[in-house]
Amino acid sequence: MRSRPGLPSRILLPLANPRTAADLVKIGAAVMEHGGWLTALGIVEVPEGMPLSEGATKARQARRLLQRVLEFAPDGVELRTKVRIGRRAAEGITEVAAEEEADLIIFGWAGKPGAPRSAGQSIFSTTIDEVVREAPCDICVVKQRGVREVGRILAPVRGGPHAELALRFADALGRYFDAEVAVQHVVRPDIGSTVRTQAERALAGFIKQHARGRTTPVLTEGVNVSQAILREAESADLVIMGATGSAAPPEPSSPDGALFGLLPEAIAHQARPTVIVVKTKEPLNRTTFERRAEQAETLEAADRAAEETRSIPARVDRWFAESNFQHQEFGDLHRLIQLKEKQGLTISVVLPTLNEAATIGDIVRQARRELMEKVPLVDELLVIDSASEDDTCDIATDAGARVVRHSEVLPRYGSYRGKGEALWKSLYETSGDLVVWSDTDITDWHPRFIYGTVGPMLTESRIG
């Protein structure tokens, strides 16, 4: 296959009904590279078991019908005709496309509007579906509702090779019809001003790279992308968009196996004007878009930034929901001890004090009795004092705690007022794998303050 210019020069028009070919010829002429040609193709199917020569009569009839198509060719446009006899229409179309080294196949689709297709249901038609899967070139499917006076063309884009092809074609159609091309990109209303500015720059860059005619960027806010496009399409005379589905051949029974993507199919079904959906022959996958998202100032990068912005509140909400615990969940202290021993951990409890003579004695006694003597959950109990002027240190020592003054810990680094000083120096003084601090100015202190804090660290690996 030859390397192709920006626009196709050899375009194949398979025609089931030549009488409806005028719009397809007009579209083909509009997107065709100067000096190229169109080929109107008639297909004669001969059932298995019958010799292909039996199709000779029908082939003559098809050639006569195709002669009528020649009158649709605009001045200066070369339009050829060809008839292929074969067993299956799809097979004949792909064979001719390869023989002619076609750059583009344009199908007309008169499909009926209706509900979204179900699993296993043909998307456009059985023939089109088969050709799309096997095509040696780009594909264009036209949902025909008439192409007469075209003053405004809508090109919804998200980014990627399919969207690039759609914009190149929209630009060519705009210059052919002397029409404005509105290039639409839909963003959510909650993306914020920074991401919106990024999307605006990316859309402008996308247009500059792939269009040279009269274009207008349209950044639309909307939660429902399909509805946003359909609203904009109401003021358009023609809609052209790229496929959004994976290029990999889908399983026929899979409802997600959209050849063009569910969004373009929905727009083709529901939009008022003629809708053109295009698809490149190059296989695409998620990696294609991920690579583009790494490039600054692309639509893919702007979409990723918008998605990340939207997902932050959700991730934070989820984290809080999953990381909120109640002490009642950890009231089985024997289970906590089993988990501690299984993980080979030791636990230190630190009680920072500053003039807590009224409360420190009871807190130390409770901690020792409930968490060290009754059950060996806590391995070390330390009181770190910040120069109390009352009997705090003596009371804590008498109650059974080891007491240190933070001014005496690592004195070469100096000593400063405040609990931050006590907290970091207590890490030096303790030996436990897990260190838990607890306030000491509480009159109704309870051991749950300790095991309610230790519990998540022992039970949740993502936390501990």
Entry summary:
The chain is an alpha/beta fold and 464 residues long.
Shape field: elongated
Task: Specify the biggest β-sheet.
Answer: 10 strands, mixed
CATH class of the largest domain: Alpha Beta
Report the uncertain regions: 1-5, 113-124, 246-257
Mean pLDDT: 86
* Helix/sheet category: alpha/beta
Secondary structure tally: strands: 14
Strand composition percent? 15-25%
Q: End-to-end span in angstroms?
A: 59 Å
Strand order of the largest sheet: 3-2-1-4-5-10-9-6-7-8
What CATH architecture of the largest domain do you see?
Answer: 3-Layer(aba) Sandwich
Tell me what the structure shows.
The structure is a single chain. This protein has 464 residues and is an alpha/beta fold. It folds into 2 domains: 10-190 and 210-288, Rossmann fold, CATH 3.40.50; 330-459, Spore Coat Polysaccharide Biosynthesis Protein SpsA, Chain A (Alpha-Beta Complex), CATH 3.90.550.10. Helix content is 40%, strand content 19%. It has 15 helices and 14 strands. The chain has helices spanning 22-31, 56-69, 89-99, 126-134, 161-177, 193-210, 225-233, 262-270, 286-293, 299-322, 333-342, 360-373, 392-399, 419-429, 448-459, and strands at 10-14, 37-45, 78-86, 104-109, 138-143, 152-156, 180-187, 215-221, 238-242, 274-279, 347-353, 380-385, 402-405, 434-437. It has a 10-stranded mixed sheet with strand order 3-2-1-4-5-10-9-6-7-8, sandwiched between helices. Strands 13-12-11-14 form a 4-stranded parallel sheet, sandwiched between helices. Strand 7 (180-187), helix 6 and strand 8 form a beta-alpha-beta unit. The longest helix is centred in the C-terminal third of the chain and has 24 residues, at 299-322. It is elongated.
